[in-house]
From TrEMBL:
Residues 5-232 form the ABC transporter domain. One of its GO terms (molecular function) is ATP binding. This is ABC transporter ATP-binding protein. The keyword Nucleotide-binding applies. It holds the Pfam family ABC_tran. Belongs to the ABC transporter superfamily. Keywords: Amino-acid transport, ATP-binding, Nucleotide-binding, Transport. The keyword ATP-binding applies. Coiled coil: none annotated. The lineage of its organism: Bacteria, Pseudomonadati, Pseudomonadota, Alphaproteobacteria, Rhodobacterales. It comes from the Bacteria. InterPro entries: AAA+_ATPase, ABC_transporter-like_ATP-bd, ABC_transporter-like_CS, BCAA_Transport_ATP-bd_LivF, P-loop_NTPase.
Amino acid sequence: MTAALKLTDLHAYYGKSHILQGVTLEVGPGEIVTLLGRNGAGKSTTLKTAVGLITPRQGRVELAGRDMTGQPAHRIAAAGLSLVPEDRGIFQLLTVEENLRIAEKRGSPWSLGDIYRIFPRLEERRKNGGGQLSGGEQQMLSIARALLNGPKVLMLDEPVEGLAPIIVEEIVAQIRLIREAGVPILLVEQNLAVCSQLADRHYILELGRIVHCASAAEFRSDPDTIDRYLGVKA
Ligand SMILES: Nc1ncnc2c1ncn2[C@@H]1O[C@H](COP(=O)(O)OP(=O)(O)OP(=O)(O)O)[C@@H](O)[C@H]1O
């Protein structure tokens, strides 16, 4: 079966620093896959390279079988690879609903009604300014904006970082609903409990290379590997 997203032997640099040293991973249709690794391993760089914000020196990016390597970021976004970055990128001075309206796209299977069903808080807050939202609500708004684009694959960079446990639970449930709607997800997240609750498979990145790949069950039953690569007791 054709992967929803396939990265093959990606190499990327910041200046002379060789950050990605051959990243190979794939996300299957309907899957949630995590990309784990210590700080500085290259997780965010992998996501940025996949969406064309960084041009890879070598390797290949395929979206649903279509070669997107070297395409500019706007083309890759239009083809359906959406990144929700760590810094959230919402318009602070627009209301929630305005933020959503400008993200709507003709031909997208996602309507504002679909979004409000997954994120009822956004409907409650629809007349509030983006800048008045809590951190969790901003995160929801930014995921919602990416969905309206009708992504073939959604990439989330640390969606629950710094959020209160009760909001984390809400966002975990929302990510599940998004997957149930058929959107495959590549998740970068430091919160291992969240990763274990959501993911079908896990990749571990170390110094710009994938050093381990495991199914959810293998991962849970192998705390030594988790400790070795991530330095945490699972
Ligand atoms: N704009 C940049 N210019 C130069 N080096 C950078 C830049 N952004 C990141 N780096 C370096 O690239 C490496 C990988 O960074 P990246 O942000 O991809 O790691 P990460 O795994 O996402 O870590 P974190 O969890 O800390 O965000 C790090 O050594 C980082 O210092």
